Amino acid sequence: MAIWNSRFKKELDETALKFSSSIDIDGKLYSEDIEGSKAHVNMLMKQKIISIGDGKAIIKALDEIFNEIENGKLKFDWRKEDIHTLIEERLVAKIGEKGKRLHTARSRNDQVALDERLYIRKEIINLIKFITNFQKTLLKKAETNKETIIPGYTHLQRAQPILLAHHLLAYVSMLERDKERLNDSMKRVNISPLGAAALAGTTLNIDRNYSAKELKMNGIIENSLDAVSDRDVVIEVISACSIIMMHLSRFSEEIILWSSQEFSFALIDDSYSTGSSLMPQKKNPDIAELIRGKVGRVYGALMGVLTIMKSLPLAYNRDMQEDKFHLIEAIDTTKDCLDQSARLLSHTKYNKERFENELTGDLLLSTDIVDYLVNKNIPFRQAHHIVGALVAYCVAKKKKLNEITLEEYKNFSPKFDKKVFELLTPMASIRSKKSSGSTSPKEVEKQILKWGEIFK
Ligand code: ARG
Predict the structure, then answer these.
(1) Which residue lies with its CA nearest to atom 10 of ligand 1?
(2) CATH of 363-454, one of 1.10.40.30, 3.30.2130.10, 2.60.40.2550, 3.30.300.20
(3) Could you give the residue numbers annotated as active site?
(4) Using an 8 Å Cβ cutoff, are 133 and 412 in contact?
(5) What CATH class does 10-104 carry?
(6) Ligand 1: residues within 6 Å at CB?
(7) H or E segment at 161?
(8) What pLDDT, on a 0 to 100 scale, did the predictor assign at position 428?
(9) Cα separation, 338 vs 346, whole angstroms
(10) Which end of the chain has fewer CB atoms < 10 Å from its terminal CB, N or C?
């Protein structure tokens, strides 16, 4: 019989019970559920709402139930509806009458809201660990590619040469903001809804701040209706995961592009590549593609919870049970993808020689020629115009910038002298960057040192 069944003349229909059971998902919150219950019992004892004897018996039994679940002895029976009910019924089975006092001044509504917050708190810390690990892998790769030159792109068209290290460090810095976002949300996550009861609070003399403190939470969600009604922190953490996944997807996309024969720049180790069942020559970047593809799960989760919550009247509605599916899916997927991104990167080599010669004299150096003319006191807009005409000339003649003569240069501006040829290697371009945070080796080294300090 269900815990709420005494006012009914019939049991819930078996298929309806199965349909409404959430234990296959919220079963993952068993340790948070027990942690929350213990804090609640400690508060009830302190407030003399239950006796010390009963409270201690409950806590001891809850610890045993925790071990039973850990050891696989207590099976998750879907007939128990949810993890809260399963644990409470097991408690009563173990210690009888005493166990029936656990749920005093509590509802599953504040209980589940608390469990989710404790779970998110734990997972924020885990996510941050996974991000840091990926950042360290990126930093290591950057350190070994301080001289590797690549074309930097805009619109996926060659723009200006940059160092691969600079490119990799851009991801380190994006991921740092991802961590900040998670850390910021902690102050909204780590507050207690416990004691809001079903929606209106309770007539019993509870101390909500005490149980919050027991759980190392920073205070309580004051309004009892708010405490049981909202799932904004669930949405917030999935949204932070969505942004992380967007970053991972861009990173994966580049590995996929760069490992193509057309780019021939990234070489994924055999242990991180897959083959084709039909075409013997194929070597595919499936892991990167899966990371890119799994973004769908996390964005889907975000849309899922936003949609569940829209239009729900206050306070609790059973619709809200569906949020945990999305929450757990988003967090597990994001952790997995962060882990695989780090592993994929450490199994990827970059062809250091791939671009250096090809980019010597390449049109992507034209911006440096514009700056050269600006240094000779030609107004920028005019310099841009001159070099544009020069580029058109090279395209027409099918020549690189280092394949035309000084005389030809002088036809475009008398200010050109033979020094212009010194600009026409990608490394010269990279070295000549002066602004802070640029791709110049000096600035890249600064970033490497900074991140090295941070991750020490
Ligand atoms: N399994 C429920 C959920 O996750 C727990 C809360 C049930 N509350 C209720 N009033 N039926 O939302």
Answers:
(1) 109
(2) 1.10.40.30
(3) 155, 276
(4) no
(5) mainly alpha
(6) 22, 26, 82, 108-109, 112, 316, 318, 320-321
(7) strand 157-163
(8) 96
(9) 13
(10) C
